[in-house]
Amino acid sequence: MPETPLSLLNRVFGYPAFRGEQAAIVDTVVAGDDALVLMPTGGGKSLCYQIPALLREGCAVVVSPLIALMQDQVAALQELGIAAAFLNSSLDGATAARVERDFVSGQLKLLYVAPERLLTPRFQSLLAEARIALFAIDEAHCVSQWGHDFRPEYLGLSALHERFPEVPRIALTATADAATRAEILQRLDLGAARVFVASFDRPNIRYRIAEKTEPRRQLLDFLAEHTGEAGIVYCSTRKKVEETADALKQAGLTALPYHGGMDNDTRRRHQEKFLREEGVVMVATLAFGMGIDKPDVRFVAHLDLPRSVEGYYQETGRAGRDGEPAEAWMAWGLQDVVTQRRFIDEGEAGDAHKRIGHAKLDALVGLCEAASCRRVALLSYFGEASQPCGNCDVCLNPPTLWDGTEAAQKLLSTVYRTGQRFGAGHVIDVLLGKTTEKIDRFGHSQLSVFGIGASQTDKVWRAVLRQLVVRGLLEVDHSAYGALKLTQAAKPVLKGEETVMLRAIEARPARKKSRLAP
Ligand code: ADP
Ligand code: ZN
Questions:
Q1: What is the dihedral of CA 292, 45, 360, 289, to 10 degrees?
Q2: CB count, 10 Å around CB of 388?
Q3: What is the pLDDT of residues 41-62, one digit of tens each?
Q4: Contact at 8 Å (CB) between 9 and 18?
Q5: How many CA atoms lie within 13 A of 142 on its CB side?
Q6: Which protein residues are within 6 Å of ligand 1, measured from CB?
Q7: Ligand 2 centroid vs 504 CA: distance in angstroms?
Q8: Nearest atom in ligand 1 to 174's CA
Q9: Is this model's pTM higher than 0.90 or not?
Q10: 74-129 pLDDT tens trace
Q11: Which residues form a coiled coil (predicted)?
């Protein structure tokens, strides 16, 4: 009996059935056609090229940027009795030479290579000698120059198609927004590929996004709901990673820092501990996580905003890969948005890149401000329609909205009357009708807006201001010490042509942690 994809899945991998679109993807590649596979982490991308590799003649060449993951995969394949090997910088010369020989002489079914190795003249000549079953390009979003995993070597991968037009290619990624997808198709020259998009929903992850008030306290409260569980706390800077890890240790937690500024040995030690021991909290920058395959991560916390919705999805996606309930928690504030806008504006990138950066940030802020289901908002960003999930903070605890039109008008008028030259603190002082040295100096107690907001608290005004900034009615001018300025979007509100619904800020009683419904 000749082998079929299903018989291989049963016999070699020990699984009874394909999941989702795996069977169709396998058929496409076995037939010699190109495929682009967008599937969330844990969805089962590897089988999509491993089974065609076994069914087609020759050796599959798998391009992967992650050395650690390569080694794990190869070890797992060898365990199953499959002739697999990898070539990367971790091998000594003799071993590498042996792998190369096996490759050329047709002893291998799968060869994993790092992209920089693949493009060397030496490897290119090996490719000419060997018989190639297919090219698999893993983590294909690394070709996207707008993404934060960009690898310049990935741009060279389109050459594979030029040299070996008859060899099918399968590109795989867990990053699925339309822009990245288009970029992958274009840059890898995959125009004729069949595109497979799996559902990106991770139903066992509960999403919670809180307003940042006392971040340290809020984080500790969140972690108290996850005592003894393993998880990741993401921070945006190395310094904050160190400080947060220290604070968690002092609070009695098993916390370890991880960031790109630490030496390799320490990093590896911390990573090992996180993987092998129970209940370790890894406090990390983005340097940690890509390719970390730990199924029982019970939570991912963000103390700072990620850079985009994709980033948020990728990072939170490291929780609950075993399918058991897990939580994604984030605290964010206006300052995060302001800082990131400044990063984008002050960056070296060209205008087009900056515009994309701002649009991506806007989308993320939209998710944070969402007054309806977070999951619906998240999935719709990836072009996927869904129903309110019942397993996010908004579904479980809908925010109270109030008509903030009048408050918005008062605040916008105050910004305008004070000349669009002052920051949040002064504008709110004028609204509240305070007497300060600055108000005296500028004669602002003479303005018609002085004290028009006295019936509300400072805290309410800060919340209103934050929401107006994140919605783009006000902007913060970094070149003028954080002065607030009106945007075009403020006009219809000031003219009374548009209502502004705002989220109420009063703290609601914390809910008891409820388990997922079956
Ligand atoms: P990804 O690369 O998409 O993150 P993997 O290929 O690592 O996901 O697969 C995730 C897990 O799911 C692995 O443990 C894999 O063995 C398992 N898996 C994949 N496909 C199937 C299937 N059809 N049946 C059962 N388990 C599967
Ligand atoms: Zn929901």
A1: 0
A2: 14
A3: 778 999 999 999 999 999 999 9
A4: yes
A5: 21
A6: 15, 18-19, 22, 39, 41-47
A7: 19
A8: 3
A9: no
A10: 999 999 999 999 998 889 999 999 999 999 999 999 999 999 999 999 999 999 99
A11: none
